[in-house]
Design a protein that fits this description.
This protein is mainly alpha-helical and 281 residues long. The protein has 2 domains: 2-107; 181-277, Fusion Protein Consisting Of Minor Coat Protein, Glycine Rich Linker, Tola, And A His Tag, Chain: A, Domain 2 (2-Layer Sandwich). It is built from 4 helices and 3 strands. It has helices spanning 2-40, 43-207, 242-255, 264-269, and strands at residues 220-226, 232-240, 272-277. The protein has a 3-stranded antiparallel β-sheet, covered by helices on one side. Strand 1 (220-226) and strand 2 form a beta hairpin. Helix 2 crosses helix 3.
Length: 281
């Protein structure tokens, strides 16, 4: 805009200069010619000549002005084009700069995001690893506690089993001792009862024996089988003196039924007995 004003001012000054020169030229030419023209030619002719010159000069000046205006317009258009081109380049450079800056910022943001994601991922990995170690440690401690508890329970079970086994053995020994004592007592009782009833059987047989002094010093061994009621079911001589054995047989059958104990075991012991008789004086 400043350049255009300057050009207009220059053009106006040029036009003014041309007008001044034209005026001086006319004035300078008028002085010598005035007298001559006043003498030789009519005034109308001089005026016509001066008007043609002025017109020609004016046309020349206008042509020069138009050429100068066109040149100025072209110069101004070139200046405007150059300014627009410069502005376009500046704008393009600014856009490129902004694009590069945006791209740089974008890359930096992406890099920052990747770094942040990597940092968060590493933190999460460490947290997960720490949690995993804690869980593994807790699991290990739990396994150790479970193993310890299982061992203690197994130890208690074994101790209890050993105690119960010892108690069972002691109880078994006690029962065995009691049973042994009971069996011994029972055996003694049976033996005593058997001996007692055997003595009764022998006494009953002897009470029915009829003999003489010739039987003294002799002996007879017999086997007697009895029913549970004491009834004689069989009599047999094992060995001995015939006369004595015959007298024994007669005496046994005279008794018919011997006194028998009510105890079943003693009763069974007496159902098959072997007796030896040896009369004494």
């Amino acid at each position: 805009m400043t350049g255009l004003n300057s050009a207009l001012l220059k053009s106006a000054a040029l036009h003014s200069g041309l007008l001044v020169l034209l005026a001086l030229s006319v004035e300078w030419q008028d002085e010598p010619q005035k007298t001559e023209l006043m003498i030789q030619q009519p005034v109308i002719q001089a005026v016509a000549i001066d008007a043609a010159v002025v017109e020609a000069q004016q046309q020349r000046i206008e042509a020069q002005q138009q050429a100068a205006a066109r040149a100025e317009q072209q110069r101004q258009a070139e200046i405007t084009r150059q300014q627009q081109e410069a502005k376009r380049k500046r704008d393009e450079a600014a856009r490129e700069k902004k694009r590069k800056l945006d791209e740089k910022r974008k890359k930096e943001a992406e890099q920052k995001k990747r770094e942040e994601d990597a940092r968060k991922a590493e933190e999460q990995r460490k947290k997960d690893e720490s949690l995993k170690k804690q869980q593994e440690e807790q699991a290990r401690k739990q396994r150790e506690a479970d193993d310890k508890k299982r061992r203690e329970e197994e130890q208690r079970r074994k101790e209890e089993q050993a105690r119960l086994e010892q108690q069972r053995q002691l109880e078994a020994e006690r029962r065995a001792q009691e049973e042994a004592v009971a069996r011994a007592a029972r055996q003694q009782f049976v033996l005593t009862e058997k001996e007692k009833y055997t003595a009764k059987i022998q006494a009953a047989i002897q009470s029915y024996m009829i003999g003489d002094n010739s039987m003294y010093g002799r002996s007879c061994k017999v086997r007697i089988r009895l029913a549970s009621t004491g009834f004689v079911t069989d009599f047999s001589v094992i060995q001995g003196d015939n006369a004595l054995c015959s007298a024994l047989k007669s005496a046994v059958y005279k008794v018919v039924e011997f006194e028998m104990p009510s105890d079943p075991e003693v009763n069974r012991e007496l159902r098959d007995i072997t007796l030896t008789f040896s009369p004494r004086q």
